[in-house]
Write a structure and sequence with these properties.
Radius of gyration: 16 Å
Strand order of the largest sheet: 1-7-6-5-4-3-2
Shape: globular
Number of strands: 7
Helix content: 25-40%
Number of helices: 4
Order of helices and strands: EHHEEEEEEHH
Strand content: 35-45%
Largest sheet: 7 strands, antiparallel
Length: 152
């Protein structure tokens, strides 16, 4: 039997991975402490950490209540894994995805893998959103999150 690897990317998901020169505990803290989340991601209302069933809002533009993302912590596996439902209330109809955060010890530091799933490959707007999230997660993880981790 011949084996051919599947090199076609899954267009229904975005996966971004980054290495940080700090402990997995420090990365997990940046993902689960509300004050730290606000420093690198977005202001939140109701986020209390990695608590299963927690409903919260992320404010894309704090001055506009309609620019919110409704989230719920739908899975937590300690140590180091958490999944949020992610509903963008700006879209019509609202877009619904999932974002999974996985933190691993890696050499002399940590690896964070963010997997954003649920994009409809047949919907042009969803594919545009997927492309925007690919760039956005890359920028946030390499920029703001890295800065927060270096400062703590």
């Amino acid at each position: 039997m011949d084996f051919e690897p599947d090199l076609e990317p899954d267009r229904s998901r975005v996966e971004v991975s980054r290495f940080y020169r700090c402990s997995p505990e420090n990365v997990w803290q940046a993902l689960t402490e509300p004050a730290l989340i606000e420093r690198w991601l977005m202001p939140s209302t109701g986020f209390v950490g990695a608590v299963l069933g927690t409903h919260f809002l992320l404010s894309v533009h704090p001055s506009s209540p309609s620019a919110e993302i409704a989230c719920e912590v739908v899975d937590v596996t300690l140590p180091g894994s958490m999944t949020w439902s992610w509903m963008d209330l700006r879209a019509s109809p609202p877009a619904h995805w999932f974002v999974r955060w996985d933190v691993y010890a890696h050499g002399r530091g940590s690896r964070l893998v963010v997997t954003h799933t649920g994009f409809d490959v047949d919907d042009k707007r969803q594919m545009m959103a997927r492309n925007a999230f690919t760039r956005g997660w890359d920028q946030v993880l390499s920029g703001k999150l890295a800065e927060v981790l270096e400062a703590n």
